[in-house]
Amino acid sequence: MQAVNLRSFKQKVRFNKVRLKKFLSKVLKEQPRGLDKLAADTEKEVWKEVDCLTCANCCKTMSPTFNAADIKRISKHFNQSPEAFTKQWLRKDKIGDMLNKTEPCQFLNLQDNKCSIYEIRPADCSGFPHLSKKRMVDYIHVHKQNIEYCPATYKLVEKMQALSKN
Ligand code: SF4
Ligand code: SF4
Questions:
Q1: Model confidence over 44-102: pLDDT tens digits?
Q2: Model-level pTM?
Q3: Using CA atoms, how far apart are residues 126 and 21, in angstroms rounded to an integer?
Q4: Is the CB of 131 under 6 A from ligand 2?
Q5: Atom nearest to 106 CA in ligand 1
Q6: Ligand 1 pocket, Cβ-based, cut-off 6 angstroms
Q7: Exposed end of the chain (fewer CB within 10 Å): N or C?
């Protein structure tokens, strides 16, 4: 497993994001046979190479969506009411989702990149970065966005594109 170098990741994104997003659009349009298996197999390779604890770029630059169950569970952990927790940490976006007011996430320990509420973190965090799902095509729009922030997503799409050329 390699440490993530966010500076070189950002450079690679600048050079390659248009190409990789075009590839994702093509995948969505053509929905090639065997796509979901390919994504699942490629994901295994990605996690042999990416160490999230050397990255945490998701927790530093994006906000998870907190659903009602997340808010209830996490506020209880802090002996707060869901309302008090929401008032302290969250804001509502244009479509009504509850997001962190600030980034990095208040629960990220910046010394070691660990989540201080890991066991009870939002469901959105546990599923992130949603690399291989039952139907990859349902997540193409997510990958298109995350490719610019998440080195694991970037690697998945890059590897899948390389394999599709063989
Ligand atoms: S709750 Fe934890 S895993 Fe989720 S964004 Fe915050 S620090 Fe990261
Ligand atoms: S999920 Fe992606 S952005 Fe988050 S720590 Fe892992 S590689 Fe980095």
A1: 999 999 999 999 999 999 999 999 999 999 999 999 999 999 999 999 999 999 999 99
A2: 0.92
A3: 25
A4: no
A5: 6
A6: 59, 64, 105, 107-108, 115, 117, 121-122, 125
A7: C
